[in-house]
Amino acid sequence: MKPDLSINFAGIKFKNPVLTASGTFGYGYELADLIFLKQLGGIVTKTITLEPRFGNLQPRIAEVASGMLNSIGLQNIGIRAFVEEPLEKLNKIGAPVIVSVAGASTNECVETVKILSKQNGISAIELNLSCPNLKKKIVCHDLPLMRDVIKGVKKVSKVPVIAKLSPLVTDIAELALAAQNAGADGVTLTNTYPAMAIDVKTFKHKLSTVKGGMSGACVKPMSVRCVYDSYGSIKIPIIGCGGIMTGEDAVEFMLAGATMVSVGSASLVSPKKLINIIDEVENILKEKNIKSAKQIIGMLNTVKK
Ligand SMILES: Cc1cc2nc3c(=O)[nH]c(=O)nc-3n(C[C@H](O)[C@H](O)[C@H](O)COP(=O)(O)O)c2cc1C
After folding, report:
1. What's the gap in Å between 264 CA and the centre of ligand 1?
2. What are 197-212's pLDDT values in tens digits?
3. How many whole angstroms from 47 Cα to the centroid of ligand 1?
């Protein structure tokens, strides 16, 4: 029998637990003609800010062992241009859309979400509180600011708000709990890991910004640990993110406590990878005779709620 892959996340229904990860699938609409996209659990857009951003100078991508570094710096067209065309095209795909939003202040985030709240066809907001590639401090490293941003956005958002957190903290469970207590409806664990690389042929830094965010297969065990540690401390659901390349990786995150997963670097290899991951999750559940994907969430987590 075909296992039931459907998931309820913060009151939103998804046909399966696999999402795109922010920033690795463009605005989502660029690939809208690929009919397989409608099979996705959902699409998380690249992060949008109130004003357009040009991002950082090149080079802003570098390969490292089993992963990559990026320092894109939130290049995007700004919220006003985003709600004009991309959102309209995105809605044609037929998968729930989660819009990723960031800002350097509470006011910037609130104003961006106010504009989004006038639109239809958005299932949730993912608040990017964890971009490592800006000159300013990472928002979730400033707890009062993080709380203020979440509270402010919650007041103006008509859809659930998911807080995307940085793994670079002493206690990720405490941070996830702080996000929950500020009103977040879910958390994404995690964004990239601050890192750097030097080219010893040229004696130059590999990124124009020197440091960037590391992602890909190499970060998976660290992100699984973040999900595992947080699951017992919070009541809100978790999107697991970091190094998911296969269905096995996705299942691993779910066993640790993730309700859904988002896939980034793997879809830069090929957007079709996302569909393979969905099929592989289904096959694993079938092999184990598990009827529903919901059953495995936190199955191997011994940290008590
Ligand atoms: C090129 C690139 C751009 C990214 N841009 C964003 C972004 O705009 N907003 C965001 O929240 N995360 C961004 N991320 C982080 C991913 O969403 C994800 O959290 C991270 O890459 C870990 O997942 P992965 O190992 O599957 O790639 C970006 C990652 C990459 C590789």
Report:
1. 6
2. 999 999 999 999 999 9
3. 9
* Ligand 1 nearest-atom number relative to CA 216: 25
CATH number of 7-57+68-192+215-296: 3.20.20.70
Q: Which residues have C-beta within 8 Å of that of residue 133, sequence separation ≥ 6? A: 56, 70, 71, 72, 73, 74, 209, 212, 213
Residue ranges in the chain assigned as alpha helix (H): 79-84, 86-90, 106-116, 143-156, 172-181, 220-231, 247-256, 265-269, 273-287
The Cα–Cα gap between 111 and 263 comes to 28
For 211-239, what is each residue's pLDDT tens digit? 999 999 999 999 999 999 999 999 999 99
Q: Is the pLDDT of residue 132 over 80?
A: no
Length, in residues, of the chain = 305
Ligand 1 close to Cβ of residue 74 (< 6 A): yes
Domain ranges across the chain? 7-57+68-192+215-296
Catalytic site positions: 131
Query: pLDDT for 71-90, tens place per residue?
Result: 999 999 999 999 998 888 88
Nearest to 257 by CA among 183, 207, 188, 199: 188
Distance in Å from the first CA to the final CA of the chain: 32
